[in-house]
Specification:
The longest helix is centred in the N-terminal third of the chain and has 34 residues. Helices cover 79% and strands 0% of the residues. The mean pLDDT is 93. The protein has a domain of 57 residues. The protein is an all-alpha fold. It has 4 helices and no strands. Helix 1 crosses helix 4.
Length: 87
């Protein structure tokens, strides 16, 4: 299976580009909300202690749509990496 768009038909390329545009628009419109949710999840770390990671997984699994949960997961990872780098 080739991922080179030049090997795809015009219709397939148009569908792929339209999907990319939809996802980018979704990302732009929801990034602030995703960062807020990630902050909320991280703020629970000291309170939940050893159960925090399990709780975060459950919270992420309950989020819809999947694209939003993925954005929040990514933001949590970025924030955790930034806080660990500062130590």
């Amino acid at each position: 299976m080739s991922f080179n768009l030049a090997n795809r038909s015009f219709e397939e390329r148009a569908q792929i580009e339209a999907q990319k545009a939809r996802l980018f628009e979704y990302w732009q419109g929801n990034l602030g909300k995703a960062k807020g949710e990630a902050g909320r999840l991280i703020s629970e770390k000291s309170r939940r202690k050893g159960k925090w990671a399990e709780w975060v997984r459950a919270e992420l699994d309950s989020m819809t749509p999947a694209e939003f949960a993925s954005m929040v997961r990514s933001e949590v990872n970025k924030m955790m990496a930034a806080s660990n780098a500062g130590r």
